[in-house]
Amino acid sequence: MFRGFAHVWTIVGLARDLKRRAPLPLQVAEERVVLFRDGEGRACALVDRCPHRGVRLSLGKVEGGCLECPFHGWRFAGDGSNQLVPWNPDARRERLGATPLPVLERGGLLWLYTAPGLAAPSEPDVPDVLQRDGLALNSVTMPFAVHWTRVMENSLDWPHLPFVHRRTLRDALPLRPGSRLDISWEDRPWGGRTATAIDGVAQPITLDYRFPNTMHLHVPSGRRIFELILSVLPVDDTTTHMIMVTIRDYLRSRLFDRYFALASRKIGGEDRVVIETSLPREVPPVGEERSVRTDEPTLRFRKLYRDRLMGSFAGESDR
């Protein structure tokens, strides 16, 4: 389970998008997952596979805080326990449960832990900005036809901004003939913080890499808050969902969400046109591509991926 992406917390969406009566299906690292809310409104997650005949539980409905299988009506609580087997009052339901996965709501986001069980050995590392009151969050999800590592390293790549994003973000890193770009990396418990200087002049925007698959962009906005969190969610070996979450403390009405969503899609679309042409689709060992000094953040990501994630997996024995 979750091969190449096991035993980590990942953002999978906004908490408000998980409704009371509607299961929410996902696919993470080739594993089908379904989220739903129990009778007390708590977020729950199960492997999206009925233990009876293997069908998608997400095709069913939420009844009495349980997820009902669409095939034979078996019902499962948020902890995976079987609560009902129609036509079989003598069934040994304690042996007929679904597989639960840890899921939490933190900072207005849904966080999934990629291993079976009711609890994870750690808490998700939530950015400090999400602890503040009075924030508006908006989310856009875009598919990319490439391995998630290519999308992740692109989000950490400063030098591409004035080229790929000529129409949107070129002023974030203004390019002048003969200029020198320096990129600093500061280790943090959750990953690393990067900053830039052009010809020795520090630039105002900073960018965080939060292990395993999150980029956090800090944009100075005076007294206002405007930040971007980008979660790169692996679907399978050739498909990635990029979840772009904008965070602001102004224009908080949901009426403005459409404006921020359009801007996110435009920026993401510029990246997608280029990244989907990458070969090989998964980032290769460092020596197989030519790199330069300004590639330090992406090279650090590649090392962390190969040291801590590549080849990882979770199984039923982890429960």
Explain how this protein is built.
The chain is built from 4 helices and 19 strands. The chain is of the alpha+beta class. The strands form 4 sheets. Strands 12, 13, 14, 15, 16, 17, 18 and 19 form an 8-stranded antiparallel beta sheet that branches. The protein has 2 domains: 116 residues, Rieske [2Fe-2S] iron-sulphur domain (Rieske Iron-sulfur Protein); 180 residues, Naphthalene 1,2-dioxygenase Alpha Subunit, Chain A, domain 1, CATH 3.90.380. Helix 1 packs antiparallel against helix 4. Strand 18 and strand 19 form a beta hairpin. The longest helix has 19 residues. Helices cover 14% and strands 32% of the residues.
Radius of gyration: 21 Å
What CATH architecture of the largest domain would you give?
Answer: Alpha-Beta Complex
CATH uppermost class of the largest domain: Alpha Beta
Amino-to-carboxy terminus distance: 12 Å
The overall number of domains is: 2
Structural class: alpha+beta
Helix count, DSSP H or I runs of 4 or more residues:
4
Overall outline: globular
Give helix and strand order, one letter per element, not per position: EEEEEEEEEEEEHHEEEEEEEHH
Strand content: 25-35%
As for the CATH topology of the largest domain, it is: Naphthalene 1,2-dioxygenase Alpha Subunit, Chain A, domain 1
The major β-sheet equals: 8 strands, antiparallel
Mean pLDDT: 96
Quaternary organisation: single chain
Give the helix level as a range of percent.
10-25%
Q: Note poorly predicted spans.
A: none
CATH superfamily of the largest domain: Naphthalene 1,2-dioxygenase Alpha Subunit, Chain A, domain 1
